Amino acid sequence: MPIPVISVAQMREWERATWATGQTETEVIRRVGKHIARRIGKLTRAGDAILFLVGKGHNGDDAYAVAKELDDRRADVLEVFQPENDLLPLKTKLRKNPALIVDGMFGIGLNRPLSEAWEKIIAAVNASRIPVLAVDVPTGLNANTGETFGAAIEAAVTITVGAPKKGMLASAAWPFVGRLEVADDVGLIPCPHQSELNWTLPEDFENFPPARPAAGHKGSFGHALIIAGSFGFHGAAVLTTRGAQRAQTGLVTVLTQANVFLPVAAQLQSAMVNLWKPGIPFPAGTSALLAGPGLAAPHWPTELRPVVRRWWMRHWWRELDFPFIVDASALDQLAAAAFPKKFTRVLTPHPGEAARLLNSTPQKVQAQRTKALREISRKFSDAWVVLKGHQTLIGRSEGEIFVNPSGNPQLAQGGSGDLLAGFITGLLAQPALAADVGKTLRYAVWEHGAAADKLSATRANWTIEDLAAEIGNAR
Predict the structure, then answer these.
(1) Are 168 and 269 found together in one domain?
(2) Which residue range is the domain that position 272 belongs to?
(3) What is the DSSP track for 144-175?
(4) pLDDT at position 354 over 90
(5) Residue 55: pLDDT above 90?
(6) Same domain for 247 and 304
(7) What CATH code is carried by the domain that includes residue 46?
(8) Would residue 163 count as lying in a domain?
């Protein structure tokens, strides 16, 4: 089940409810230690030195517990109780260049500005450029607001206990939180709180997508239609089509312009390729349409001039009775028109595109991502919105919004969004998956990011072509 994103006060209530059942803080701390130690085992190598910075409170207790659970690593523990006296010992240990620093100085209980001495401790850690794993929350970060108490540790990874705290998802917190992960298997009772925002877990997709029937054939799994590619952007049509193919939809057809037909067709084998002309009948059995990737060429043939493209986009938005996914430059050609509620409509903007849809700026979108998603969905008649970027959001104008945890900065390559759009379309083209649009979108986004994580764990660099070969295999 997804985990609600909660406040510090709700976390405290959750802990008290857990202790009331007879569970002990000692046991939960032990489990936190084991969970984080396992993660350190993946981040470091046997024999590496790990520097633990331990504070006085429960955050320090968690860090001690981690140090006790390490296998084949050298734990170097520094108690940071009096920062005025501990700066020199810290600098001495930093000069030894440990493989990883574990930040267990302050947790979510910090509620006051840090002293100058503490700021110097934090500055020394950040200046070392040694990767930091923060326990529960980076020292100095307000877990409710995402602001700092004057300074904060810049973690590479933060493993928060139980559930994400809402401030950690604020864009202002991202430079300090780094990659956010959740230790959800630590002995707490099921979370008693509900939230507008919910954190996706890999376990949410057990037995999903469902097993295919033994007697199924290509007609059983839908027909994805893709309108993509223009002069200078033919690769978008290819990557989008490969994404749909990796979703294992039954059939895939791509419609593209005459001046890029040959390079698109030459790179695709099992997909069908045809010319996009106004009014061309869709293939029989079309069960999902994607429009947008690679349609950004500045010059178009007369029969596909902007006013014609805009008319067709808006017509499809109102009339198609199967899923219609709108991506990239096609987003700018939509109008805020209604569509029958039984139909599925999906918008996949990045922050810049979201800003244009809202007549806003990317900075404002990033500062209030949940609000931006709600407003886009509301403007476009409760369409589903996949607001891409770090911690991609999936949701509509009302109801739950889901935060995606997977992915890494190496996804910031041209073609990444095209591949995702195609993968989404290939999944929604399949009747069994179109029946649960929300879960299918969440799975597509998670799989896209998880495939990137899998690649990054095994090689120093990779391309979107590599991702196209890996997506669908993350588990």
Answers:
(1) no
(2) 218-470
(3) TTS-BSS-----SEEEEESS-BGGGGSGGGHH
(4) yes
(5) yes
(6) yes
(7) 3.40.50.10260
(8) yes
Instruction: Give the pLDDT confidence of 440-471 residue by residue, as tens digits.
Output: 999 999 999 999 999 999 998 999 999 999 99
pLDDT digits (tens, 9 = 90+) for 82-103: 999 999 999 999 999 999 999 9
Domains in the chain: how many in total? 2
Q: How far is CA 91 from CA 97, 121, 152, 176, 304, in A?
A: 10, 9, 17, 21, 64
Q: How far apart are CA 281 and CA 336, in angstroms?
A: 25
Q: Which of 15, 11, 7, 67 is nearest to 40 (CA)?
A: 67
Query: For residue 211, is it within any domain?
Result: no
Give all strands of the β-sheet with 401-403 in edge-to-edge order: 3-4, 197-199, 401-403, 393-395, 384-387, 345-347, 324-326, 288-291, 223-227, 251-256, 272-275
DSSP classification of residue 250: S
* Judgement on whether residues 337 and 389 belong to the same structural domain of the protein: yes
Burial class (CB in 10 A: 0-12, 13-18, 19+), 176: buried
Q: How far is it, in rounded angstroms, from Cα 325 to Cα 339?
A: 13
- Reading the block at residue 103, the tokens are 């930040």
